[in-house]
Write a structure and sequence with these properties.
It is a multi-pass membrane protein. InterPro entries: ABC_transp_permease (IPR001851), BCAA_transport_permease (IPR052157). It is found in: Cell membrane. The chain has about 290 residues and is mainly alpha-helical. It has one domain. The chain is about 75% helix and about 5% strand. The chain has a two-stranded antiparallel ribbon with strand order 1-4. It has a two-stranded antiparallel ribbon with strand order 2-3. Helix 2 packs antiparallel against helix 3 and helix 6 runs antiparallel to helix 9. The N and C termini lie far apart (about 45 Å).
Length: about 290
């Protein structure tokens, strides 16, 4: 019983990180129709800068950890905003060029990170409480998993409230439905779309800091590794569905955890099988809109 509880909670913690990364992908594609293959470097950039700040302020202090979360989110947001403004904004409705530019940017930035921080993983530390465990129904669960879950839930609620209750959220949703009409009303849709990219980058940067504590290290390729699973989550959940991304994040992470434990480390293979089953039976994803 304790093993199942441990796998469930650690799976939820991993799913929380997957959601923070995939939520940005889902938002950007669902609202703007952009496949952003550079999303992973937003995560790595946020993780690296968050760790740099925490190590100088005090990596084992709560102040340093909290500051690393803020800096990671801001770093991811700034990188994403600049990417949209100077690269992606010129390529709307040009999907092949979007893929080429974002893939090229990802490769170039990973090489840049290699030059700055080196190719070896940088091991991170946090407040002592994060390294400790809490006993839940006999299972000793690492405390950082609980932090990841709480942050992911708060981010999900914040994004939903932003899109449904704020003026910018209404502009973004209206711009997706009829961009030309919104523009004719004198509203700058481009600024709203830049904001969507910024929010996605902030979630990725935040996820990068939490991922560095979950795995115990940060490296230039951490973001690209997690990006693979984020794309899988986005496809399974349904392109453009934030709710679908949340559900799929949990499904993928739990499947990964249980398969790794009970089926001799076959978690990644099991996830690919799940992806294939969803694509064959429901190509639009669990919560995606069916093509007319």
């Amino acid at each position: 019983m304790s093993t199942i509880v441990l796998l469930l909670i650690t799976g939820l913690g991993l799913g929380a990180i997957y959601f923070l990364v995939s939520s940005g992908l889902s938002l950007i594609y669902g609202l703007m129709g952009v496949l952003n293959f550079a999303h992973g470097v937003f995560l790595s950039f946020g993780a690296f800068l968050g760790w740099e700040v925490a190590s100088r302020v005090g990596a084992t202090s709560w102040g340093g950890f909290a500051l690393s979360l803020v800096v990671g989110a801001l770093a991811g947001a700034a990188f994403a905003a600049l990417t949209e403004r100077f690269l992606v904004q010129r390529l709307y409705n040009r999907h092949i060029e979007q893929v080429l530019v974002t893939v090229g940017l990802a490769l170039a930035v990973v090489a840049l990170f290699d030059g700055i921080w080196g190719t070896d993983p940088t091991f991170v530390r946090g407040p002592g409480w994060l390294d400790q465990t809490t006993t839940v129904l006999g299972a000793r669960v690492p405390n950082d998993r609980f932090v990841s879950i709480v942050v992911a839930v708060l981010v999900l609620l914040a994004i939903v409230l932003f899109l449904k209750r704020t003026r910018f959220g209404m502009i973004i949703r209206a711009g997706v439905e009829n961009r030309s009409m919104v523009t004719a009303l004198g509203i700058d849709v481009r600024s709203a779309f830049t904001l969507v990219f910024t929010i996605g980058g902030a979630a990725a940067g935040l996820g990068g800091v939490l991922a560095s504590h979950y795995f115990g290290y940060v490296s230039p390729v951490l973001g690209q590794t997690l990006l693979i699973f984020a794309f899988i989550v986005t496809v399974i959940g349904g392109l453009g569905s934030l709710t679908g991304a949340a559900i799929a994040s949990v499904l993928v992470a739990l499947l990964q955890q249980f398969a790794n434990y009970y089926l001799s480390g076959t978690g990644d293979f099991a996830v690919v099988v799940l992806l294939a089953v969803v694509l064959l039976t429901r190509p639009s994803g669990l919560m995606g809109r069916k093509a007319l």
